[in-house]
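FAQ: What does a ligand-bound record look like?

Like this one, built around S-adenosyl-L-homocysteine:
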Amino acid sequence: MKTGAAMKQENKQWKKNDSITLKIEDMTHEGEGIGKVNGFAFFVKDAIMDDVIEAKVMKIKKNYGYAKLIKVIAPSPDRVIPKCPIADKCGGCQLQALSYDAQLRFKEKKVENNLRRIGKFEDIPMLPILGMDNPYHYRNKAQYPIGKDKEGNPVAGFYAGRTHAIIPNTNCVIGAGENEPVLKEVLAYMRDNHIKPYDEATGSGLVRHVLIRVGFATGEIMVCIVINGRQLPKSERLLDRLTKIPGMKSISINRNKEKTNVILGNEIEVIWGNPYITDYIGDIAFQISPLSFYQVNPLQTRVLYETALSFAGLTGEETVWDLYCGIGTISLFLAKEAKKVYGVEIIPQAIEDAKNNAEINGMENVEFCAGKAEEVLPAKYKEEKVYADVIVVDPPRKGCDEELLSTILKMRPKRVVYISCDSATLARDLRFLCDGGYELKKVQPVDMFGHTGHVETVCCLQRV
Ligand code: SAH
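The answer part, i.e. the structure of the complex:
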């Protein structure tokens, strides 16, 4: 082991604030540029592949360092001017300076690299990524923090990357166009009635966040005001303003009095309209409440689900298990073409939503069960010898539990459709399934989150 002194010696070529010139040769999966000086790698936020930049050393670790972009000396051919004026300060988007085409290539490469490096796959059946027609204003959900500016006026905006300072901005370029008029009315109501924004440091003040959801297929709007208290004073004045906005269907308050980063509390009170809005993905209707989980990019969600459905290869005779089913969105898509679909999800409230969604769509061939996929499926297999022609999994970033994957291997479905939001854990799990008797047939990346480093992937596995 090296002593601290020896380590320091290794990197004494650089110290904080040194100026360096870098050619960006690679990018991390989070979208930071990587450039090297004498073989020593620096990570630089907002620098993109093929840029030549001037940067300032910020931090030196043993084998790599972090630097700050000072000036682009020679821009990459893929560099564009971000549409959002605060893209470099806001924590939300990482890739706005990269052309959308180059973003898509970056995401394809990320999936392929992980399958190669972690999954040890060689001939990968990659299909070209399915990108968005319009990579702007695609999000149907926004949660704007409320704070105040230097003059003490209420503002809505975004947290500066990695901090909790609010940068005012009511028109996020990836958010719905409906957000801005809603926020303007909420801020005007607060100003006129002297309603105080919440102050994280002291825990005083009232309005913490404004949650806005828009049904893209229906135009229905939901607004939920998160407050550090019980009531919104003179709330009728807020309703007067908000209900003039076309499409407004649901206005509620959510009580959150905890000193926490968690945005929503558990208590919701509807103060106007319905407790939910309705939206459609394809021809299936969903009722969404402020607390429900719902995919944030409904247009690409449809693309993702159509892909999953086609990979499932259903004829109407199949029994399908949809694991990590959320509010049953994929289950209902599959149920149109299967004999029977079973959905499993850990959050009981989501299962309630799933049952309700099945009912409003008149679908009787689906059953939902609350529990952990890695407990429910093994138990049902052991006790009831349940059967599946096709198993669909859509786990969170950490991927599937090994107990679940082993049960899938024992159940021997003809096909497994794996939907993933993290290609590293996807690669690990695909390797496990392929070592257990499955063949990787198709890999379809789908871009659901333009301008961020995230990529969704649907894979089709066939029993050998
Ligand atoms: N398929 C759904 C949701 C996917 S997100 C859709 O497309 O909308 C992943 C889901 O897995 C979340 O709803 C999360 O609550 C659930 N989840 C997380 N861990 C789980 C586990 N161990 N077992 C079952 N569900 C789980």
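Follow-up question: can I read anything off the structure? Yes, for example: Confidence is low (pLDDT under 50) at residues 1-9.
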